[in-house]
């Protein structure tokens, strides 16, 4: 789909739940994951939507189809991702308190492959972070190079931790972060 402009809107929890299947299909397609991944992720995404500070932005086509989605929430001690990253920072000799004291975890950002390279991803990123009250934003992404990496570098994300292995996942990840606001 290349005709028409994308429209952006913040989704309420109810709107997100109503669109969950569509958002998961988009995610699985964008990441190139096997179809079964959607079922596996559904309960996790529903749980995320209940977390403090959860915010979700959707990009929509003129006919209402979802073209892209981004969401995140306030990172807190006790969350699996937070504890994994803390362990990595401490083991790597990085100041965990500086990064983890007050941050937004950008959990997911995906644009349907047919609609990538139109600026939709960057607009989703800017909108999901706009006006947030936290000192930092943090995210994890598979080690690059990739289009996601170009987006994060272009918007000022720096290395927090590289070649990190989350428990149970053989792939190396980077933890990237930056101060807020994005500017
Ligand atoms: C990462 C992802 C969300 C980025 O979304 P996107 O819409 O393709 O990305 P952008 O908004 O950055 O697109 C900008 C690209 O389009 C080009 N572009 C074309 N028209 C543009 C416009 N009007 N405005 C801005 N950029 C434009 C830019 O030059 C840039 O090119 P580049 O990627 O070669 O550097 C998307 O590629 C994706 O879903 N990837 C697969 C899933 C994934 O990796 N998710 C992140 C996991 S951590």
Automatic annotation (TrEMBL):
Keyword Nucleus: no
PROSITE patterns the record matches: GNAT
Keyword Transmembrane tagged: no
Top-level taxon of the source organism: Bacteria
This protein's UniProt keywords: Transferase
UniProt xrefs under InterPro entries: Acyl_CoA_acyltransferase, GNAT_dom
Pfam families for the chain: Acetyltransf_7
GO molecular function: acyltransferase activity, transferring groups other than amino-acyl groups
Domain N-acetyltransferase, chain residue ranges per copy: 16-183
Protein name as annotated: Acetyltransferase (GNAT) domain-containing protein
Biological source species: Amycolatopsis arida
């Amino acid at each position: 789909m290349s005709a028409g402009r994308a429209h952006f809107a913040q989704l309420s929890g109810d709107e997100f739940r109503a669109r969950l299947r569509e958002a998961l299909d988009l995610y699985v397609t964008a990441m190139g994951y096997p179809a079964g991944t959607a079922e596996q992720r559904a309960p996790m995404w529903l749980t995320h939507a209940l977390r403090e500070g959860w915010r979700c932005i959707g990009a929509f086509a003129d006919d209402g189809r979802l073209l892209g989605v981004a969401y995140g929430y306030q990172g807190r001690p006790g969350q699996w991702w937070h504890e994994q990253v803390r362990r990595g920072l401490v083991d790597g000799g990085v100041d965990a308190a500086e990064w983890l004291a007050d941050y937004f975890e950008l959990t997911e950002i995906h644009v349907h492959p047919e609609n990538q390279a139109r600026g939709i991803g960057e607009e989703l990123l800017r909108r999901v972070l706009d006006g947030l009250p936290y000192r930092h934003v943090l995210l994890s992404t598979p080690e690059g190079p990739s289009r996601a990496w170009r987006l994060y570098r272009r918007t000022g994300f720096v290395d927090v931790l590289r070649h990190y292995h989350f428990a149970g996942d053989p792939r190396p990840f980077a933890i990237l972060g930056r101060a807020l606001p994005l500017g």
